[in-house]
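Budget justification, computational time. The allocation requested in the original proposal was used primarily to generate structure tokens for proteins on the priority list. As evidence of use, we reproduce two of the resulting records. The first is shown immediately below.
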Amino acid sequence: MTDVMRGAPPARGLRGRVEEQLGRSNRSPLGLWFWEIDRVLLLLAMVMIGIGLVAVAAASPASAVRYSDASRSFAPMYYFWRQALWVVVSIPVLLVVSMMPTLVARRFALAGAAFMLLMLAIVPFVGDEVNGARRWIGLGVMNFQPSEFLKPFFIVTTAWVLSLRARDPDLPLFAITLALTGVVGGLLMLQPDFGQTVVFVAVWVTMLMIAGTNPRAILALAGVGIGGIVAAYFFYGTARARIDAFLFPDPDKAMSDHYQTDMAHATITGGGVTGTGPGGGMVKFKLPEAHTDYIFSVIGEEFGLIACMIVAVLYLALVVRVFVKLLDEEDAFRLFAASGLAVQFGLQALINMAVNTGIAPSKGMTLPFISYGGSSMIALSIGFGMLLAFTRRNPYLKRSPYSVRLNRS
């Protein structure tokens, strides 16, 4: 006699057990997270991480050859296996951070911003010098770059400050965020890191626009920005060298910035529309930083320009998805934080792709979730985890007491 004839419940398969554990009636933290997380955003992140592993595998032999010398020799897949290790570490970080309630995520970001700002201040004194810049603190197994971790913390901190306007309209929020951005920018220029400075300032200005800052103030900032670029050219040697190398290349200087962009262009177009196939690229062996700054070009050579277009569309889809998700968001803090984090991901990807295609001079900017790097991967996972936390639609999550509801009238 079967179980059904005896009156016993039928045997449940794997699907039935999963539905029972993660059903909509399940009020456990894991059950709430599963149903309230934006699974489209999570899927986009996982796809990018997967593409990154494939791209690093393609770039690893070229970088291994370039950085091997008499004292050390790297196996062809050295960078791939290290990246795979960082992915194993980073994905749990992303998931854990995405489970944080809004209040916890805000406090985490404020504490992280204070600590990373301190680390950023000591980098010029204790950091390891690479190619004339001090941006990293050596930790043995990895190079720790405080500016990468500071980006998401800075964005959430700025969002919290801007969200205080409704509680007290007289607070000088513009001046407070200007001072914070100015301190961060000044410390970055000491390293020097002009590219990261541009990202911080651009995200800050975007958040001011979303917060409804007076357009005259935004125009004034634009004027100051143009003036700052001009001043940087005349008084900041690194910026002048980058701009001159891009606009007025020296053909006799083999390793100039223009050489890097020229090689990036040759690599990205070397495979045509469909690419040479995995492992078939040869121009990549002449490309500096093939596994980090110029991995987008390696994707173009081995997988074709169609693959490059797909990668660009994925980043665009991420940003669009977030802003569509925020159209009915009434909490000012969550709105500012999530939009700022989305802009950071999109802007960083745009700068990297612009450098790889020769539209912009070299910036030392990685492609989010795709370029090689342990410090970058973990920092991006923290940032994306907070983005998922702030876009959750969960009525049981506590809102920050510092958050305010937007006036839609």
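The second record produced under the same allocation is shown here.
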Amino acid sequence: MSHDPLPIEQLRTAIADRLERSRRRTLALTSCDDRELMAQHSPLMSPLVWDLAHVGSQEEIWLVRDVGHRVPLRCDLDELYDAFQHPRAERPALPLLGPDEARKYIAEVRDKALDVLEKSPLEGSALIDQGFAFAMIVQHEQQHAETMLATHQLRKGEPVLFPEPLPAGVVGTRRGLPSEVLVPGGEYAMGTSIEPWALDNERPSHTVDVRPFWIDTVPVTNADFTRFLDAGGYDDPRWWSAEGWAYRQKAGLEAPLFWTREGDDWFRRRFGAVEPVPQDEPVQHVCWHEADAYARWAGRRLPTEAEWEKAARFDPATGRSRRYPWGDDDPTPVRANLGGGALRPAPAGSYPEGASALGVRQLIGDVWEWTSSDFQPYPGFRAFPYREYSEVFFGTDYKVLRGGSWAADQVACRGTFRNWDYPIRRQIFAGFRTARDATTAEVA
């Protein structure tokens, strides 16, 4: 979605297309048998059937009631599917809608939401200008699709999801690429005030000054991380923060989640299939503490959120901040690994057409990237349209992730998009890249 306003009818069509795409994905991820949908595959995650009805409940509240001012369908579901009311571990005990009833409910909600879309002027208030409320619901459903993929990864049993091939010509190698890229110091515009579908925590645009630094050209790979493992990185407290070392001991961390060792070789379980760990892929399923420990071991550090965004968006030729690393145009299959079809990251060095102006690759898609920054509001932040989307999470409990994973959809992933999670989270599709300060001699 461009930040340039679309004609209203063209905008209406674009929103309807995105609503349909998100729903196809939701239904595909919940097409397994009822036992799989009702089961809780991990206390970290909801039963898939909860996510299924939850996306419909949010759509009813925001589009049918708030935007459309229509008669509610199921007020009795509001509290049941309120994520703040019921922790994930407790949701299986709730009187949830069964799979058939949930599908019927979300279909009824969608019919009414599309009628609201057809009649909405899509202008006149902050909630509907440029279709914001509809875009918020699309992004919400796509975020839950990524969450459901994490649930599928945690489930035991035979595979029920199967990968699609990456487009021809996008798979590359980091051979011949520099190991790191120099990002010049100075000011740049971080965040956005003009992206119509940006969420409140991405706003407003504000000037940030960063010192020159080096950042990895590609994310840290499985091969890189294996060297940390082989060097005893998990057993050496020198590389861990005090909090990280305490958690590493408490949780018994020995390798990325889903990795197992057989002799001298590492294997991973991926959506029910066991396979050798592909050495050229970006490492994923590591928590912030593991990423931080690796960076210390490598003599480097995690980039700050401001550094990450400058590496991704800053164009030294014009001095402006782009929407995406490659420019202002929306993602395409040759620019980034998004949408969930591949079921894995692409090899490091892939997607040359998605490189930033500075030459940094795979900043969008493949893996969410941990930064060193806590999740905090930008100067001038204003909660919209509700405090619970961002404001209640601000503080030191959460670390910021940037860039989006292979499981993220393009509508919920952009150069300014901010994700956040606890530093102990491993089930998410997160990896990282490292950075270091530039010396005076290197900058001269």
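A brief technical remark on that second record: The first helix runs from residue 8 to 29.
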